[in-house]
Write a structure and sequence with these properties.
52% of the residues lie in helices and 15% in strands. It contains 18 helices and 13 strands. The strands form three sheets. The chain has a seven-stranded mixed beta sheet with strand order 1-2-3-6-7-4-5. Strands 8-10-9 form a three-stranded parallel beta sheet. It has a three-stranded parallel beta sheet with strand order 11-12-13. Strand 4 and strand 5 form a beta hairpin. The protein has three domains: 105 residues, 3-Layer(aba) Sandwich (Calcium-transporting ATPase, cytoplasmic domain N); 131 residues, 3-Layer(aba) Sandwich (Rossmann fold); 210 residues, Calcium-transporting ATPase, transmembrane domain (Up-down Bundle), CATH 1.20.1110.
């Protein structure tokens, strides 16, 4: 059986403030030895000599050691320093104060090459308006070199010691310009994330270690990998099952497509329903009967929502995916009022035709408005789903087929047995022609109004071409 010549008798755990770890081992020949490993600068400043013959570590020797460190870091190597000294016999109660008067033994070098798809991912993120920052506990030399290999600006580096001297206000001002944050501890990573959020940024954080847990929990989107430590996975919002950075870009694209299609539904539905509500309320003041029966209102809403279900798989224009967007309730309110009032104008145009040409039989009036309201809701969905001209942004086949089906139902339902259950009556052909003409004019009016509205307001920046 193999027996180790040295046994561990004590330990000083890793501390992010000290940036090193120490163990005390018992060697049969040398006695008890304290061995310290950690960040190069942190270990070097605790040393007073170097080598097996314990030569004094003067200023020139320290400079040569730092030049060696710099040379290795510029090659992309992560460097840990190792030092040791003899300690009291069989001492088990070690404290950080024991990590003094060490003898510098040498360095450990690790090569952690960037992934093959890193440069591609950075370009893709940049194309999508996403800025990338490096927040690491590694020393600034390796962080600087990593940034250069990734094609990131490495002009300004903020270290953990600099962060300790910066106020929250100063950090908030500097955090957007800096790309590299090195030698930071877990609490400082969280502080950087919060500073970015104070600047109005939506922050995603990618990490897999224990020291990333705070930042992962604080970030708007915490991302980890399946083989990360448990605490990092639990603090994350998303866990990548494959260690492929391209998944992040794919996730951003899918999220923006989902957001785009959600906004299409919200804008089209709120504007159409707002217009119908105003028309219904205003007309109720003058008519001696209900403009629409409750069952007809429910049927209208049910049918108009069927094509909207296809919006989840609708096509999204590329420019929408390339730009970040936010949920803006003020913009939704303005779109609802502006386009809802346009719908009211065309409702009143139909009412004028009914007043002028018909004897205002309630059944005919309700049926005509039911058909017109359903058709205009379908049309506004196609117009408002994109800031591009309606015929330049092709919707999905699902949306087209469902809309054609519901549009056909609007014309057929009054002539069917099902229509009679909802007290809908057949309409004269000339009235259907008028309703169709009004719907076409309504679509053109909304198209023109859409271009004017977004061209003359800052909303165009928030509701970019979908």
């Amino acid at each position: 059986m193999f027996v180790s010549p040295a046994s561990r008798i004590g330990e000083i755990p890793l501390d992010f403030a000290r940036r090193c770890v120490s163990v005390c081992v018992h060697d049969p020949d040398e006695g008890d030895i304290l061995v310290t490993k950690g960040a190069f600068d942190a270990v070097l400043e605790r040393c007073i000599c170097f080598g097996v013959d314990a030569q004094p570590l003067d200023t020139a020797s320290r400079q040569r050691a730092r030049e060696l460190h710099r040379s290795l870091a510029e090659q992309g190597l992560r460097v840990l320093a190792v030092a040791s000294r003899k300690c009291d016999s069989h001492r088990k109660n070690l404290t950080p104060s024991d990590e003094q008067a060490l003898c510098f033994s040498g360095v450990l070098c690790f090569l952690d090459p960037t992934k093959t798809d890193t440069l591609l991912m950075i370009r893709q993120l940049s194309d999508r308006g996403v800025s990338l920052k490096i927040i690491t506990g590694d020393d600034q030399l390796i962080a600087h070199r990593t940034a250069e290999l990734m094609g990131l600006s490495a002009d300004e580096v903020i270290t953990g010691s600099m962060l300790m001297r910066m106020s929250d206000q100063a950090l908030t001002h500097s955090v957007s310009k800096a790309v590299i944050f090195s030698e930071v501890d877990p609490s400082q990573k969280e502080r950087i994330v919060r500073a970015l959020q104070r600047n109005g940024e939506v922050v995603g954080f990618l990490g897999d270690g224990v020291n990333d847990a705070l930042a992962l929990h604080t970030a708007d989107v915490g991302i980890s990998v399946h083989n990360a430590v448990d605490v990092a996975r639990e603090a994350s919002d998303f866990v990548l099952l494959r260690k492929e950075l391209s998944l992040i870009c794919a996730g951003i694209d899918e999220g923006r497509r989902t957001f785009s299609n959600t906004m299409k539904y919200i804008l089209s539905t709120t504007s159409a329903n707002f217009g119908n509500m105003i028309s219904l309320g205003a007309l109720s003041l003058f008519l001696p009967f209900l403009p629409l029966l409750p069952s007809q209102i429910l049927l209208n809403n049910f049918l108009s929502d069927i094509p909207s279900a296809a919006l989840s798989g609708d096509r999204v224009d590329a420019i929408w995916v390339r730009e970040p967007h936010r949920f803006d309730t003020v913009m939704i309110r303005n779109v609802m009022i502006f386009f809802g009032l346009i719908s009211v104008c065309f409702d009143f145009a139909l009412f004028a035709i009914l007043f002028w040409a018909l004897e205002l039989r309630p059944e005919i009036f309700r049926t005509a408005w039911f058909v017109e309201s359903l058709l205009t809701e379908l049309v506004v969905l196609f117009v408002i789903r994109s800031l591009a001209p309606m015929f330049h942004s092709r919707p999905s086949w699902g949306l087209i087929l469902l809309s054609l089906t519901i549009g056909s139902c609007a014309f057929i339902l009054p002539y069917s047995a099902l229509g009679s259950l909802f007290e809908l009556e057949p309409l004269p052909i000339w009235l259907l022609a008028w309703i169709t003409l009004l719907t076409v004019i309504y679509a053109l009016a909304v198209e023109v109004a859409k271009r004017w509205f977004f061209a003359n307001r800052k909303l165009a920046r928030d509701f970019a071409v979908m």
